[in-house]
Amino acid sequence: MRAHHLIVTGGGGYIGARLIEFALAQGRTVTVLGRRPGPAGSTHLQWALGDPLPAGLPLVEGSALVHLAHDWRAEAEDNVAGTATLFASARDTGVAARVFISSQSARSDALNLYGRMKWAAEQCIVGATSLRVGLVYGGPRQAMYGLLCRLARLPILPMIDPKRAVQPIHLDEVIRGILAAADGRACGVLALAGPDRIAFGDVLRALAMAYGGKRLPILPVPLNLALLACKISAHVPLMPTIDKERVLGLAGTEPIESAMDLVRLGVDVQPMTARLTQEPAGRRAVLDEGRYFMRYLGVRPTPALLRRYARAVPDGAIARPHWGMRWREPLSGTSPLGQRLRVAARIAEASAPGEKVLSGESRAGRLLGLAFQGLVELLLLPTRMLASLGR
Amino acid sequence: MSRLAEPADIIIVGSGPAGVSAAWPLVSSGVRVLMLDASGAPLPTRADHKDVAALRTDPARWQTELGLTGPIADAGVSPKLSTPLARATLAGFGQAAGVTAQNYMALGSHASGGLSRIWGALAARYSEADLATFPVSAAEIDLAYERVADRIGVSGGRNIGDADMTSLAPPVAYFADNHRRLGSPPAFRLVTAPNAVLAEAREDRLGCNACGLCLHGCNRDSIYHSALELPALRRFGNFSHQGGVFVQRLSFDNGGQIVEARIGAELVRFRAPIVILAAGTLATTSLALRRIGLTGVPVRLENNPVGGMAFVVPHLVGRSLPSSGFGLGQLFYTLDVGPGVEAAGVFYGADALPLAPVADRLPFTRPYALRAARALAPALVLATTYLPGRFSDNEIIVEDDGAAGRVKITGAQSPEAEKLLAQSFAELARLARRRGMWAIPGSRQRLMPGADAHPTGTLPMGGTGPARTDGRGELEGAPGVYIADGAALPLLSARHPTMTIMANADRIGRALADQFAVRSGVVHAV
Ligand SMILES: Cc1cc2nc3c(=O)[nH]c(=O)nc-3n(C[C@H](O)[C@H](O)[C@H](O)COP(=O)(O)OP(=O)(O)OC[C@H]3O[C@@H](n4cnc5c(N)ncnc54)[C@H](O)[C@@H]3O)c2cc1C
Asked: Residue A339: its pLDDT value, please?
């Protein structure tokens, strides 16, 4: 049955805000429970973790509860008890579909408190649906995803256990899963995580590549050292604070079987690399790449040319030098970088700015320039050879 | 689901050069012809520029050269195949025909007019020695050549001694001029390229004005393609043409031949006493072999082993590019590269071509390569070298799988091909050097089998294998099915095959028309 009316807690968060936006766009009504009101179009009722469903809730046919709120400052027991209270009152008032947003790390013996607590909450909400959500990426750069984006920008990334498998899933895919659960498509404890296991290090490498056009060197770090770093980061000004809970949450993630659950929910999860290029940051990175290449070629990049470049390289940005291209350009045209440069050259040549550059000057000037630059080309050969070896 | 169209005496599958050439003699003698082709959306048209200089400075130039979307081809692909027009012409063929290829570039088209929409229009004729292998008299083919040439309009093909060379690109003209002075060694014959291009206006087509935009499709219709003939054919009441009909298989019953096709999602059957296959060699082979049950077995497929190289005329380097010119082949040569082995090829100017494919191959940094290519372009001459099809060694296997079958092609060349291509390159370099052109080191390139777009010979006329046709193109094991395209060629010479495919189709159509006149006693009213 379609959930015409969503009752959402945690509506201001990374997942919650997107969920409400989607639900409203689909013509559902939304009531936001919490301290602050939701976006225009939604109704707001005061509520805090520990409260039952507020009175005065319009309980139309087809209402569904989606509980995303989590109080990081509260004690673990309070979070669990608050969840139990909310779900019990929802059941009693006849809310048919009750969806709890859990975590892939939910286990009785999870390393992190969050995982243990999510597990405990799952135990006291009989008849409800728990969605164990994997590593969520995409959309606004907040929450874990925001942290990962920041980490991927580092020149070198110290990382605990970079081979640890995670199961990334796009924010929009998560939303689709939540709405499907709210509509009652499936119930029970369901894994809402990517079907493929990807090394966590590779997720960060993919982010660095797709958003930054660079390779990300990763330095494996023992867990203890990382926890120490968390402690220090909390005391050093100007350094991004790293949350110990997050570190533990990742270190303790165990793989889950999600393929069947995704089918039940009707969610089709695309590979992360394919989706990253569709993200605004991924598109921007491709345009940056094209711009850099065109400038390198000495041709003014117009927006139309850059868009054409982006359409020619649907696989997103690749790792490339960000400066000193002339002496780092690979000798071969078959490497990814060599190929992309040729695509850019083709566009540059077929452009009005390119024509201006190429047709300018007198014959003598042109030949003189070529002769001089030819000498430079010779001088560049050794470093270009070295760069080719490195790639 | 099933539908029988209005009665036709003959169904022709394909509106390419072969199909149209087979149609003419039939239609003009009153036979009722239904021509089917698989064309879908209309091909893109390009903006109308006065000449190549106007295109170069147009801010929207990239749209003409690269199209709005899609990948941008790299150096491995001929510039002819990377234009928006070419991409649309080739689109969808491989997938619909179920083609998988290994070391072979399977080119085919579902357009109205087929591959001739993007062909190089080089209209060479086979030599007497080539034609001697045909199971018909050379005189008969020669007559057909004349009729086809009259129909489509062919210019060029003159000896360098008495040709007007003002229309040649400057470096090509320089080379030709030196050749005229030096004279021709007997092993190397050079003529102005015989092109299916109108020098003067005729009916609906305008004469070539050397705008230089040939690569992107001729807005004046000076360059021949076979869809240009459809309006004239349609004026006959006994001819009809239906596009958007994808023929999937052939069958037969007492009533004659059945053509099973798909129109969008609808399955349709057409029926006629006779079917002529002219769907291009690959598609025709798939339909024919499934019709005679010769599936799952390898059949020989010929193509022209082909390579290319570049020359430079030094004193022209760095000049400004001419504002107009002629973008197709400028000179045509044949060269003896061994006893009884004739290579053939074309010299092109580079002033109307995109530079990037040249720049792509230069080992410099990109900014320098682009500028160097630009400086080279006005001095550049590009040449192709084709070898006879017997030096190819491809295999095609047709599987009766799914509604439209599958085609597997494995490309290969005889070891001799490599040697002969190298020999041809070396000989060309030597001849060119004496005529004022320098071969550019490293510019030699061998193309993948199939990139020549001359697949032929799977059902050779007068052949001896199980896959063969008789002297009139009738398919062995399937009376009433005729093969009118390259599949039926008994020999693939080094010279471009389309004129010969057309002449042969004309001949086959003519023989069938005679047969109809005899059989029915009366000819249907026109
Ligand atoms: C880039 C390029 C340059 C070339 N240059 C030259 C040159 O300079 N000189 C030369 O001699 N040759 C050249 N060729 C080759 C020449 O184009 C072909 O030899 C010629 O087009 C073959 O004609 P055809 O009628 O046999 O087949 P095509 O031209 O391929 O036509 C096939 C027809 O069959 C139809 N068809 C195909 N499958 C089906 C189906 N299943 N159902 C219904 N209809 C179908 C298509 O719609 C089309 O109308 C070139 C080719 C290319 C690609």
From this structure: 92
For residue B522, the 8-state DSSP code is S
B229 in contact with ligand 1, CB cutoff 6 A: no
**Ligand 1 mutation target, pool B34, B95, B116, B229, most atoms within 8 A of CB:** B116
Is B377 in the A-facing interface, judged by CB distances under 8 Å?
Answer: no
Separation between Cα atoms, residue A339 and residue A341, nearest integer Å: 5
Instruction: Tell me the C-alpha distance between B338 and B373, whole Å.
Output: 34
Q: Which of A161, A156, A165, A160 is nearest to A216 (CA)?
A: A156
Residues 6+ apart with CB under 8 A from B47: B58, B60, B63, B64
CA R_g for chain A = 26
Pocket lining: B122 vs ligand 1, CB cutoff 6 Å: yes
**CA gap A148, B111 in Å, rounded:** 50
pTM of the shown model: 0.88
Predicted local confidence at residue A240, as pLDDT: 65
Q: Is B456 in the pocket of ligand 1 (CB under 6 A)?
A: no
Identify residue B161 by its one-letter amino acid code: G
Q: What sign does the dihedral A245-A246-A247-A253 (CA atoms) show? A: positive
DSSP line for B131-163 = HTTSSS-HHHHHHHHHHHHHHH--B---BGGG-
pLDDT reading at B1 higher than 50:
no
Q: Which of B319, B356, B367 sits opposite A296 (nearest CB)?
A: B367
**Phi, psi angle pair for B513, to nearest 5°:** -60, -40
Chain B nearest-CA residue for A374: B368
> Which atom of ligand 1 is nearest to B499's Cα?
11
Here the tokens at position A182 are: 């709210």
Q: Do B66 and A296 touch (CB under 8 A)?
A: no
CA end-to-end span of chain A: 55
Kindly report, residue by residue over B449-473, the tens digit of the pLDDT. Answer: 999 999 999 999 999 999 999 999 9
Asked if A385 is an interface residue toward chain B (Cβ–Cβ < 8 A), one would say no
A345 in reach of chain B (CB within 8 A): yes
Question: Given CB atoms, is B62 within the 8 Å cutoff of chain A?
Answer: yes
pLDDT at B525 over 60: no
Q: Are B263 and B245 in contact (CB under 8 A)?
A: yes
Q: Given the CA of residue B328, which atom of ligand 1 is nearest to it?
A: 8
Beta bridge partners of A218: A157
Domains belonging to chain A, first-starting first, are: 5-276 (3.40.50.720), 280-390 (no CATH)
- pLDDT tens-place string over residues B98-127: 999 999 999 999 999 999 999 999 999 999
Chain centroid offset of residue B243 CA? 21
